[in-house]
Amino acid sequence: MHGDASFQGADARAGPEPADAGDLPSPARFLSVIIPAYNEARRIEKSLRSIRRYLEGKGFSSEVIVVDDGSTDSTAETVAGAAQGWPVVSLIRNPVNRGKGFSVRRGALQASGKYILFTDADLSAAIDQAGVLVAALEATGADAAIGSRALQRELIGVHQPWFREWAGICFNWAVRLLTGLRFRDTQCGLKLFRRETTRRAFEHLKAERFGFDPELLFLVERYGGRILEIPVRWDNDPATRLRILRDGVRSLEEVLAVRWRAWTGGYPPRRQVSTPSARPEGLRHEQSRREARP
């Protein structure tokens, strides 16, 4: 368990020292689920119950890591209560609010699973959609699979207000222009990564807030990884904490910083990862970049 039995995690450090993928220990579990949480006392208990039912119905080993991002409500106590009799749950606490990107990175670098899944605390993308992503990586040997709302919009049960949807489309255009990523939706809160081949991307992730998704995907591809974009079922939660103007500007700044670091040598040199080349023809929604990035 990360932190002690009372769920009082360590302070917010940057995480473990970078390690070569070949130096990582063998996976202790099949799946690690990372949940960043900031003032989520009202929603996270229900989400953890859903995750528990899903994981206990599967035959693989797992762990759940909740990263409390400096919450000022009873998020930590709620997680502790939900974890009673469920020893795979652990809690890491950031002393102050650092952002979703910081929290996902911190949880991912603590994870021990073969695969690392991160999901929003509200489960806007239902947890059973994780199985779709796992199946895609198992079938293809790719390094990451990201849930997408844009590929099959008929899978969206509850839409965002129109202005939020248009803001998301405009942000995606900016991401594609600035980073070269080809994905239709980089911001869906359900993503799966092969721990061994993507750890380096997590280690060098700089963005701490909502702009972390494009940077993480950019780094996975920069270091030779292959990413699949997979349509998933998704329902908007009106209680979202994303503020379009404030968080949109911050996210765009973080994406601009990705391009600046790439131009100025702010990232370590590329190094190819070794992945199987098999690619089933039936997987229609793969997006991949094999060429080196600038």
Can I get a quick summary?
Helix content is 35%, strand content 17%.
What does this protein look like?
- With 294 residues, this protein is an alpha/beta fold.
- It has a single domain (26-264), classed as Spore Coat Polysaccharide Biosynthesis Protein SpsA, Chain A, CATH 3.90.550.10.
- The protein is 35% helix and 17% strand.
- Strands 3-2-1-4-7-5-8 form a seven-stranded mixed sheet, with helices on both faces. A two-stranded parallel ribbon has the order 6-9.
- β1 (29-37), α1 (44-56) and β2 (62-69) form a beta-alpha-beta unit.
- α6 (195-203) crosses α7.
- The longest helix has 21 residues, at 244-264.
- The chain is globular.
- The termini are far apart.
- Residues 1-22 and 272-294 have low confidence and may be disordered.
What keyword list fits this structure?
single chain, Spore Coat Polysaccharide Biosynthesis Protein SpsA, Chain A, 9 strands
Q: What's the layout of helices and strands?
A:
Layout: E1 29-37, H1 44-56, E2 62-69, H2 75-82, E3 89-94, H3 100-110, E4 113-119, H4 130-140, E5 144-148, E6 156-158, H5 162-179, E7 190-194, H6 195-203, H7 212-222, E8 227-231, E9 234-235, H8 244-264
Parallel strand pairs: 1-2, 1-4, 2-3, 5-8, 6-9
Antiparallel strand pairs: 4-7, 5-7
Helix pairs in contact: 1-2, 5-8, 6-7, 7-8
